[in-house]
Input
Amino acid sequence: LFRSPAPPTLPPRAAATGRSRTEDRPVAVAVAVGAAGRLSTNCLAPFRSEPAPSEGHPVCHSGPSQSSRSSRASVLVSRQGRTVRFQHLEPGEGGSLGAIMPNGTPPPAFTLHTSFSPLLSLYDSFLLDQFGVIHDGSRSLRGAADCIRTMLDREKKLAVLSNTSSPSHVAQGRLQKYGLRADMFAGGLVSSGEECARFARENYCRSGGVEAKALWFTWKEGASQDPPSFLAHCEGGAEGEGDGSIGVARSVEEADFVLCHGSEVWRRSRRGDGGDDVIDLNFLNDEEYDVLDPLLEGCARRNLPMVCANPDLVVGLAGGVVGNMPGKIARRYEGKGGTVHHFGKPDPRPFRACLANLGVTESTGRAAHVGDSLEHDVAGACAAGIDSVFVLGGIHAHELGLKPTGADDAGVVVMEDGDAVEGEGYVTRSELTARLDAFFRERPELPRPTHVVPSLALGSS
Output
């Protein structure tokens, strides 16, 4: 359904936000229609230029749950310098355009829920993110497995869509660790690591004794990570269809490309058993650049392309720890002039692959994606034309002054106004609404979700 991606026509940051490299160049935008037949337009918020909307414009709706996002759709027509022209579509207009709206028109409001329960009646299919939604890399997050089982009892169709750098079959095998089974997900598990491996196999796997060599950033070898197996998957795939090999460069000068599979170590041999074969990047936990920067600068000087298996910038790990991911290394490389091939969210193709696996079309079902990253999950869902559910207890929790969801801790608990706030993690609906409002005003480049929930857990509506 989606093979090797063509090189992007916009630089990666511009592609993520929809901005063109030249500000006075018109920007064409396709209006995406969601599976329920509604215009999916919250993602238009990134196009808004300064000044930000006045304080009178709300960005959050915290009233009763709604089955549709907004009665109006803001459609970006063009950008001329710092002026943005919006046209509005009313429901049933059949594509006719309404009046031109002034710069600063706010994006559609989203709906805040105190639990995931109300969404079960709104959608037939769900695409689920992994880290920060289902688990923290070590244990299932509180309430997530029960929520998934309830979805299946309610005959919902499910798929997992993840930016993990692991191949799909490896990530599926880990589901049992979190109290789940692969057969619970009719749409399978689509991973960025799978597509990265496919791209490497199709473009760098050579036969005839002439290897393309990778400068290889990866993970430490252990119970949950097996870097040599990932490299073998790049060469042969799940069915062993490859007939070549990829070498491992010991220096920048030997390399033909950069394989950014992980963010823990620079691995200088396939087996990694030499004294200097595995060099710690001091990046995952500490975000140091003493080892990375000289390598990235050398690769950029040689114009080596980078293949990034996980575009995430950060991830929430067990104990509320935030880890720095391969996507942050890729962004650093782009800042030094390097070229990066990204895979996974927010690219709309893996979303469409999941929907196709589930048999969902615009006329056959209502679908939503559930994730904790605005830049990847929400933006990707918008690009794919489906609704999004933003999980507060994930990677953005600290930015919002909220407690992350843990294996034994519900994290964010939203109380109705007037109820007693019982302790750490509890917040009233009005207080949370105010925080979200302030957050999105301070970060106008971020896309807006359709719905906001504390976590993938059931409870009161």
